[in-house]
Design goal:
The chain has 443 residues and is an alpha/beta fold. Helix content is 48%, strand content 12%. The chain is built from 19 helices and twelve strands. Strand 8, helix 10 and strand 9 form a beta-alpha-beta unit. Helix 8 runs parallel beside helix 10, helix 10 packs across helix 12 and helix 13 packs across helix 15.
Amino acid sequence: MVQAARILVVDDDHDMLQLIVMRLKASGYEVSEADSGEAALLRFHEQRPQMVITDLRMGEMDGLALFDRLQAEAPSLPVIILTAHGTIPDAVAATRRGVFSFLTKPFDGQELLRRVADAIHLSPPLDPANNTAHWRSEFLTSNVRMEELLRQAWRVAEESRMALLIGPRGAGKSTLAKAIHRAGQRSAHPFVTLSCTELPAAKLEEALALDNPRGAFAQANHGILYIEDVGTLSPLAQGRLHTLLLSQAQAEDPLHRMDPSAMPLHLPDTQVIAATPRPLDISIAAGHFRSELYYLLCRTCLNVLPLSDRREDIPMLAMHFLSQIAPGRTLAPEALFALEEGSWPGNVRQLRGIIEQLASSTVTQIITEAGVRRAMRDLEDVSLVALDDARRDFEHDYLIRLLQSTAGNVSQAARIAQRNRTEFYKLLARHELDPANFKQRFR
């Protein structure tokens, strides 16, 4: 059974409030109500409506002030403002600020329902218990900012947009990309992952060649190509990705169509989602990453929160992981509190690792606080033992950036790294990096 869309109606005029509520309920919507802006904010946090209808003129917090508060937490939440004092300047000011629609009382009931339907179409149900929201089932959250992230992700899927996911390692960028794949019309087609830190530069450049019948674009045709750590791509690979994205953007925009002779012969129908663990502004300023590629990717930027910014989700996530790994086990309240106050530099991935360790090392049905704190200490020790892996990852990333900044000039790169040429060549061979792949400079 599909759950009715949730709408919050706000008006300090009781009769008008009830009239709108009854009309919406008669049309099959699930409606909650509030008689002030302050009460509306409480309802919003409790019920997560898909849209809000509010009167403009109210008490201490008017409709536009309420809109500003809602937009700060959920920028994509559609808001319709109603007023008996409507003027063209009011409407223009409201829509410029991002209000979805503006209606003057007395309004036509059918027109209100039409605008509500348009708003609901742009605002998906986000309740994971709702069978229409299966696409985001791996995201358990009560955090408003995470709900807004999922709302934006749904639009990326619905409109088949390219997007850039920004967030620390382990926060769930690849999980979000797969959720976007499930949510859209491309779900029946391939989801292809291209890791920029696991493949040598030459292989990445080959994979991103449009004329490669076995390349990443061809493999992901009609589906999604997910590019991890896009900021580490070589200049040549960035250029090839930019060519594809620019061609797609211009093909979709009739006002800025590319000269047909300059269009790639076989333009794949591939939705590209890229990811980076850190913002790319420093790389752009240093000339390591193409600004024009960034602006294409970041038409939609989705910021994935670190676990430390959504601590209220930690107990729920921990219990969910435990139910998957060891059904029948549970965590004591004190154990959940200990998890919630942890630092979690590894984010959700690290939390799951802790739960896996607890499930394998604890023989009792109830996992105690002492067990949790011991496991967290053990995981920190394991992280220290794995320092060689961390150093190798850093070294690989450093060498790529060094070769990018020197355009493949080994002498200059070795001098910056304070290594002799022989030693530097050995480093490059160890990481399967070919300086020739970095000779091309940005145009």
